[in-house]
Amino acid sequence: MKTLTKIILAVITVSFFSCSDDFLEPVPSSVLSDANYFNTPEEVETAVINIYDGIQGVNSTSTNDNHGIMYEFYLTEMRSDNTRTKASEGEAAQFENYSITTNNGIVQDYYASFYNVIYRSNIVLANLDVAGSSAAAFEAEAKFTRAYAYFNLVRLFGDIPLIDKIISPEDKETAYTRVPTSDIYELIVSDLQTAVSGLQDGSKYRASKAAAETLLAKVYLTLNRYSEAQTLLESVMNPGRGFALEANFKDVFFNEGNNEIIFAIGYVGDTTDSQNFSAEWLNAVGRTSGVNYVTEEARLALDALGGNRTMYSYRQDITQPSQYQVVKYIPDGDTNLGINPTSTDPTKAGNDWIVLRYSDVLLMHVEAIMAGGLSTTSSNALSSFQLVRDRAGLTTPVASISRQELLDERRVELAFENHRLFDLIRMGEAESTLSAFSNANGYSFTSTDLLLPIPQRERNLSNGLLGQNPGY
């Protein structure tokens, strides 16, 4: 059992942050509250751990629960050209064909989940006065998680409310006033700079210095601050930091906590800290008709460019040979691929969700050196690029790297890990790529589909304060 989960299980009886109808005002699940609970550093740490529990989400089918990162693939991978539903049914199909409505429950769940993570982070930051010598470390950890949540939300929704402290239920102005993305990014950068300064390396399931540097580098790439991103990435790449590519691509996902992992959300099979998203991707063992199935476009890219990564990225559905499933997070094992199951019940799977890993760092390093250009021949960029390709068995040296080649490499290396949509947007290729994909498949993509709708439920609660994104 993972160390983080041990702590979560140990403090669950005193955890007082439950998911309620209003994500800004969680209701205590016991007589404890933040007003009378925090008296020692140990009690503050329970709140720190509880932030990760919020990201982890609740393994359930209840629409009253926040499912955290378990629903992220709908909003990212299934809005790219990588995945789709198996049967084009229900709310899930809205993501693949770009017909998302303002009442989509999956969008609402993710929005509420990650504002709840922000709330949990703000609770920690409001109680640092009793944290003693651990205050700086707890502050850094809470600001990392808050920045992580805001970075996901701002990329998905654009202008959003900025809540950087505990607010009262009466403060509708703060809760529902959307601020410019530039203001959100200002907070994200500030929070991550604090995290970089205040964290140490060590954990892969809690915030670390390397995780903060890597996430801040990705933020800087998004903001076209390339030289700052390069400096941070080269810090993580220093051999003394201990990160390296796994020799076998399969081990990245099925030898959990390995040297390639920088930050992951831990799950434990057959417990309350399990996940169900990977079962949903397989139809035969999930509760749905199958989601996050591999598109023909992604399959062709992997066949052409994946090298030895391909067999551990997707597989043919045995029961329906015309369909293809994601392998990286397969919960019930595959004897042909040497993959063991992570639980006795696939809907209570133990596969970790990897947020940041070292190959992402290497490919971002290429992007930072390219600095928005169309190509690079930099020896440092070529070296980072070649490391990733060598591991895939593609050992022929490259003399230059184009933007398209970098996008292609990121696609096959990080397939189905929720990077593709953000990569396309960040590198300015989303509209052209997704328009072509949409036209080829009879979908209805337009440029306004690059942002999700603000959930109608939140707009209703705001009494007119919370505006809507164009196109919805």
Automatic annotation (TrEMBL):
Residues 38-221 form the SusD-like N-terminal domain. It holds the Pfam family SusD_RagB. SUPFAM superfamilies: TPR-like (SSF48452). Keywords: Cell outer membrane, Membrane, Signal. It is found in: Cell outer membrane. Its main location: membrane. Residues 1-20 form the signal peptide. It comes from the Bacteria. The keyword Membrane applies. Coiled coil: none annotated. The keyword Endoplasmic reticulum does not apply. InterPro entries: SusD-like_N, SusD_RagB_dom, TPR-like_helical_dom_sf. Belongs to the SusD family. This is Starch-binding outer membrane protein, SusD/RagB family. It comes from Tenacibaculum platacis.
